[in-house]
């Protein structure tokens, strides 16, 4: 395997880095047309349309959409059917994720001014949320935890999960995760038709206020289209890790951390920055040796060859600068004083500090969310959190005295903008 | 003018209400194609493309894009050139908006578990933000305040405003508002080409991390397209007000409050709910009488006729229920105990409480933001705020002891998902 080596001393380093990071989700026009038609059909025909698409695409044979709902007792049975160790791990992860997310709960606030005017924000939760869970290989129970728990902590009253079950095959770990999180209803539907059912509501599937969760290109296109009718979470790109290491961590550990990102898919990106060139050689050697043992060797090799890089930097400060440019989804600080170093980081989805904190711990059970901004979007967005399932209403109660002062200001500005009814409305309140 | 009258006792009330609220922004495919081409061109040719489109669409005659930048001294001159009363009102509004938004600043947080594991979130501001301000009639200085101040309070280092100046005509109030808010740079460009310049960066216009601010259909389409490359704020629909009144407010006041929304544009929506049928008659009479005095009579008449309604409800509780279904952008509670009543409100952009609190005060100077979720999106979204210009990075520092416990959980779950590198990476940290 040939993995790229850069040095920040290279004259073409900036151009190389830019090219390395270049990734734009091609918006496939064909997919978009197919999705637009499915959504239109689901909006118009409801259950009937969802049932037809599901039977066709997932090769199921239901005569009513209601048959595709999974009962709570089936979810509980899935949980009880797990091997003890797996069940305990799932529950332990859920408990830690819940405990961390409870710290994110926002509260209403207000303050009263001297003249009695009250201002603030009232915080409320969304009523009903839809959670998309992919079927087949990419069906990750951890993804159910990470999406469902923040919603439940926020106080969402009804959480509706959709998961396609091609040929009727159900993933027991996913159903068990739904049981652990207290998902309220589960439908075995997927694709654009499931997104449409959640966004518009059908006779059987209730309309939700927001749709979250990962999915394939059809699901992503459907989410983009229904955005505005309902809220959506981010549309994620391929996963990435950036490791900054001072050269004093076991190179095998770092190699495996890079693999843990690369094994997700061929487009995943793993980058290592170190001021120690000899260490980069060691990690390269570890990669060559360890990849042979990996069941997902082919995916890892393609990912590291096509999109990976080992970069030699002048010093750790320069590594921080490059990291801030990259704004990585996952950032490992495998250095001596990671907490102090983290203050230099401006843009990252999650910061994993210290040699013991491998990204995998965060993916499953450390507590923070594993749904993170990808493709440099950490420059302007945040991990999924409880705050994504709460929203704010401004509170304004102007006292009679306050209206005298504010009314004049508002009227002056309203006349300046040519909005006379605004001005008159404020002036009516003047005594 | 004929304004709709409904009663919740009507057998077809639910259907009528649904139809009244029905509004979906038609996504015009022609606009979308034009915008896609402009964006592609700006991305490829930078300054040259922006200059060409600007000279063509805005009938300007610049030979370099730099000529279209407005200097800080010109902004200050605009502010100093305002009539004293207008300048004072602008400054007073800015001060109040700033003071309110400072309450929204989020801070980093973390906690340490018994075994020394640290978890939390680091909060940072966006580096650079683009603010779109429409040219021509809809150029509102208040909109500059409401978008620029939260960004500055959040700590955004560079705020770049774009505003088209067709035929070179500059709106002095808008420039003055930019001066008051400390906008860093202003370019006289607009349309999709301005959004493209901000999103991709050109030789002259720096690339930003997020684009906010209202615009026409071309601007909205461009924002949708660059979403992902940069962050965007919401894509707003027509403005709406819902007034709930117990019948004891001066009907002229309520009529004028409804006008203050209706005068924005023909698609704006004004709805009044009251349990007092006689009061609805009085308001209808006030509307007939007062509309004659309004300079924007035609817009108000069209808006109220096409999209307005006076609705008779059983009681105020039922009004709250209907309001929660509508999830209005602006909600006036013109009732006796507005603060107590506000607890029943689950979904609204802003809640204006009490007879003295007309919406116009909030539009300009009460303090809270006037950029609010429209078209029922208050079910899942919030007013623009400081939080839209800050973002979070998860902090995870697992202690050596913590890694022993978490590593086993993570490995168990990772093997369950078939991700062996994840499992191995966690297991390396086990002693």
From TrEMBL, chains A, B:
CDD domains: Histidinol_dh (cd06572). This is Histidinol dehydrogenase. The gene is hisD. Binds 1 zinc ion per subunit. InterPro entries: Ald_DH/histidinol_DH, Histidinol_DH_CS, Histidinol_DH_monofunct, Hstdl_DH. It comes from Methylotenera oryzisoli. SUPFAM superfamilies: ALDH-like. Substrate binds at residues 239, 261, 264, 330, 363, 417, 422. It catalyses: L-histidinol + 2 NAD(+) + H2O = L-histidine + 2 NADH + 3 H(+). Pathway: Amino-acid biosynthesis; L-histidine biosynthesis; L-histidine from 5-phospho-alpha-D-ribose 1-diphosphate: step 9/9. Zn(2+) binds at residues 261, 264, 363, 422. One of its GO terms (molecular function) is NAD binding. GO terms for cellular component: cytosol. Its EC number is 1.1.1.23. HAMAP family: HisD. The lineage of its organism: Bacteria, Pseudomonadati, Pseudomonadota, Betaproteobacteria, Nitrosomonadales.
